Amino acid sequence: MKLIMRSEFDDLRLNPNHAYDTDSNGDKQVVKIYCGEKLIAKKITHKKSIRYFGVKEYRQYLQEVR
Asked: For residue 36, which of 9, 18, 49, 55 sits 20 to 30 Å off, Cα-Cα?
């Protein structure tokens, strides 16, 4: 996985064809986005740090949301 921009992560999350789930453990939160059974992106929030990650081919899952 590699770092991606927040807007790209939001585009993946808002896509109606994708599902996501959330895990919380203390002060760490992970949001994972799936296309079918495949994990395509995740957001990790640890204290005040937020990082967005996507698989190498995440761009093929992007779409315009308007």
From this structure: 49
DSSP 8-state symbol, 59: G
pTM: 0.85
Domain carrying residue 24? 2-56
Q: Are 32 and 42 in contact (CB under 8 A)?
A: yes
What is the per-residue pLDDT across 36-58, written as a single tens digit (0 to 9) for each?
Answer: 899 999 999 999 999 999 999 99
Give CA–CA dist 55/46, Å, rounded. Answer: 20
Instruction: Count Cβ neighbours within 10 Å for each residue of 10-39 and write b for 16 or more, e otherwise.
Output: ebbeebeebebeeeeeeeeeebbbebeeee
